[in-house]
């Protein structure tokens, strides 16, 4: 489920939440009447349409039985519960995703530290050689020192991106690990963070699965709301009843 789908689901649940007051402030039909309306709302429809209506009624009945819903006020309570459940799941998803992104960053910097260690070590070696050359004396000492500095500078110009990435990774990991930072143990630390990242991804998949269940429940609740509106306002054209239904769910 994408972030866009998550936002759409949240919007649907928030809209349905406003239906509660309308249900409790009117004389709602019974659930049996609603199921009957699903089966008989278009008696002149072709056979395939009647079969679809039968399947819709069966799925709606299963939803009601699964959630122990016996009347529309109980359905309103279910919608309230879905509203709370979504907010809880959404908050958990955001926390899991933030933690997963943190592990992504940890792992990225570990990779850079390993990948560009050689370039940084060679540059440090050339710098050290240049400093040693500066301390030498003799007729050719200055020329030798200049040559060593040029070698270090040339290497840096060619490999400056690698060196910069290594040093950024080193600084980042030192800040994260503090006294536990050990370049020799970075592969082990990277493996640990990958395992933690995998756990967070698994948690996120489970939470998204909960959202899919909520999405299915919302669709079933929408079916009931649609036919309840037709029964509560039978004299209104279907389009007007649909608009009224939209007002119900957009009230909050």
Q: What is the gist of this entry?
A:
By secondary structure, this protein is an all-alpha fold. The chain has helices spanning 3-17, 19-25, 31-40, 47-66, 72-115, 117-135, 141-177, 186-232, 238-250.
Describe the structure.
This protein has 252 residues and is mainly α. 84% of the residues lie in helices and 0% in strands. It contains nine helices and no strands.
Shape label: rod-shaped
- Biggest sheet statistics: none
What is the number of strand segments? 0
- Mean pLDDT reading: 83
Query: Span between N and C termini?
Result: 25 Å
Taken as a percent bin, the fraction of beta residues is under 5%
The helix fraction, in percent, is over 70%
Radius of gyration: 33 Å
The oligomeric status of these chains comes to single chain
Poorly predicted regions: 239-252
Alpha plus pi helix count: 9
Secondary-structure content class = mainly alpha
- The run of helices and strands is HHHHHHHHH
List key phrases describing it.
mainly alpha; 252 residues; disordered C terminus; 84% helix
Topology of helices and strands:
Blueprint: H1 3-17, H2 19-25, H3 31-40, H4 47-66, H5 72-115, H6 117-135, H7 141-177, H8 186-232, H9 238-250
Helix pairs in contact: 1-5, 1-8, 1-9, 2-5, 2-9, 3-4, 3-8, 4-8, 5-7, 5-8, 6-7, 8-9
